[in-house]
Write a structure and sequence with these properties.
- This protein is about 25% helix and about 25% strand.
- It is built from seven helices and eleven strands.
- The strands form three sheets. Strands 1, 4, 5, 8, 9, 10 and 11 form a seven-stranded antiparallel sheet that branches. A two-stranded antiparallel sheet has the order 2-3. Strands 6-7 form a two-stranded antiparallel sheet.
- Strand 6 and strand 7 form a beta hairpin.
- The longest helix is centred in the N-terminal third of the chain and has 15 residues.
- The radius of gyration is 22 Å and the shape is globular.
Amino acid sequence: MFRKLYNEAVISFELKTVSPLFIRSGREDQLDPTAADNTFITMYRDGKPVPVVPGSSLKGVFRSCAEQLLPESCDIFRDPCTRRIVREERKERQQVQGKAVDGSIGKQRYKASCPACKLFGSTVLKSRIAFNDAYPVGDYKTGSRASVAIDRITGAARPSALYEFEYVEDATFRCQISLKNFFRWHIRLLLEIFDRIDQGLVVFGGLTSKGFGQMKVQNVELNVRYYDKGKRSEGYTDKGFYVERQLKDRAAILASVSDISIKDHDILQGCDLEYDKAL
């Protein structure tokens, strides 16, 4: 499915914190008595440490939401697509031993995968989507809070269970999602997830049961390229090797996929990019 490059898309957007955001770093500074027990994850940027939302965290949140929205998505922990696909391929190899085998294994695996794995990938299928680390734009504030663990039996504070954690608030993170050889329903799905983020139904980081991790999506932009010039339509610019279009408004992006339903089985099962319309 990746032997030929059909199209590419880059979605840029900002995540604005509505409530404090906590993503644990996993590091503890036991030599600093003033350090919080649970520190926010940071990375160096322009020579100084700044808070970051890892691309892996973003992908996990988006995939989890996609599995809820897309019909017939597999359970990656109990019954993943991978297990079924490997079993079927092993059975097929035994049946065709000594005979010529169809080389379009990627296309077969894509067709046999659930909708979520079609986009986000699995151990037998390459992902079509990639998430960059998200860094803050402009100023932001950091704070810390003390909390105590509750005994689930007595309902009282557990002895010696006081801990402190760092969080980020009043911050705007610049995010970027890249897609390669995408279908239009992939874009529609991402817009649906953006809506759920705005509604507070999709949250990020830890301590979400305490109201942390609520965000708003803003300043969404889409840059799309098609390497088949036959896909060229109104709004596209010929760049020589490809045609390109930029959409700098969320409503305009939604209008370009308004005829797509992520509940349509036939659309989700399609695996021929040459028959998918341009945005």
